[in-house]
Write a structure and sequence with these properties.
Layout (H helix, E strand, L loop, with lengths): L2 H20 L1 E6 L7 H11 L2 E6 L2 H11 L7 E4 L2 H9 L9 H6 L12 E12 L32 H14 L1 H13 L9 H9 L5 E5 H8 L4 H8 L2 E3 L10 E8 L6 H11 L2 H10 L3 E2 L8 H5 L11 H5 L1 H10 L4
Parallel strand pairs: 1-2, 1-3
Antiparallel strand pairs: 3-7, 4-5, 4-6, 4-7, 4-8
């Protein structure tokens, strides 16, 4: 090989190395840093692509993207709910992604029909109850919690909770607005206390005897069952799980997910990140560490989730949760759900 060809090869190698080192992707994430950063670090180690992470509240990040417009540095938006992903899409903040890898890994119900957002993890919203005070045969469906027999026995998060908004949207899709309004009014009438706190607080309230039943996302309960703090584990041990609507449509499910922003400057790197997050490696991490259900088929769930039992999931396309969100919010307000 001539000296010129050796020099050209060396230069090409150096340029390739510099390019690999300079590759980056900027992520706005509404998920807690502990729930995503270890995976992002693994992605960087395996690909050489640096991930710059900005964490915050989902709605605040969406407003930030709106304010930044085309000048936004964000390449990827991650949120903890399909409703907020739809909200970002409706605001023109996301772009379509052509990825056979994502489409093959994620069931159609768990991604945007226009390929602008993709579910990455799955969770179910289940009934939790005090087994010492509630017989399992008293439980049946989400709709059943509006029955007067539960008066003074129900704890709930506020209507500001996107999880409650999404469940309400699902009920509107299945039962219609009039029936869902009656349901929401019935739940409000059955409250043991004004709505407050997060999912973990509802579990603690049941454990403390303040109420008998509530609704929580499975990964919150699983997280408490595996918590380092004895008080968290003790509270979780005092509740049991009931899978609602197993004789009809199935339990309500939702996703955490992500999309590539409309302003993205590092589209190829962003697509690689999303594809990595549905790899077997990442999906196993989500299952084992975050106690979430893998969105990809064939990945084993955690031992903790296995103790909750198998369940039938609602097949409603999750895009509907976003489409009906505004209607759900208005309905909850009319019902007096504060």
């Amino acid at each position: 090989m001539t000296s010129k060809r050796v020099l050209a090869t060396l230069c090409a190698t150096l340029l390739s190395a510099v390019s690999a080192q300079s590759a980056e992707v900027n992520v706005y994430s509404g998920r807690g840093e502990a729930l995503i950063k270890p995976l992002l670090d693994t992605f960087s180690k395996e690909t050489g692509i640096k991930v710059n992470l900005v964490s915050g509240k989902d709605d605040a990040l969406i407003e930030r993207l709106k304010a930044e417009g085309a000048q936004s540095p964000a390449d990827v938006l991650m949120t903890a709910d399909a409703g907020r992903l739809h909200r970002a899409k409706a605001a023109g903040l996301l772009q379509a992604v052509d990825s056979p890898t994502l489409n093959a890994a994620i069931p159609a119900a768990y991604r945007d029909p226009g390929n602008q957002w993709f579910g990455l993890t799955l969770r179910a919203r289940v009934i939790v109850y005090a087994p010492e005070r509630v017989k399992r045969e008293e439980l049946s469906t989400y709709e059943g919690l509006a029955d007067p027999s539960w008066k003074g026995r129900v704890c709930m998060r506020s209507s500001d909770s996107i999880y409650n908004q999404s469940l309400t949207a699902a009920l509107i899709a299945h039962d219609g607005e009039a029936a869902t309004l009656d349901w929401a009014k019935g739940v409000v009438a059955n409250l043991a206390r004004p709505p407050k706190g997060g999912d973990r607080d509802q579990i603690k309230a049941i454990a403390a005897g303040e109420c008998d039943v509530s609704l929580v996302n499975t990964y919150y309960l699983a997280g408490m069952q595996n918590a380092e703090e004895p008080a968290e584990r003790e509270a979780a041990a005092k509740v049991a799980v009931f899978w609602p609507n197993q004789k009809d449509r199935g339990a309500h499910v939702n996703v955490s997910g992500a999309g590539i922003t409309a302003a993205a400057k590092n589209v190829a790197e962003a697509r690689k990140l999303l594809e990595f997050l549905v790899s077997d490696e990442a999906q196993r991490w989500y299952a084992e560490v975050n106690q979430e259900y893998p969105v990809k088929a064939g990945i084993a769930i955690s031992p903790t989730l296995r103790t909750m039992g198998a369940f039938k999931a609602d097949a409603l396309p999750l895009a509907r949760l976003g489409e009906l969100n505004a209607q759900a919010v208005r309905l909850l307000d009319r019902a007096g759900w504060r």
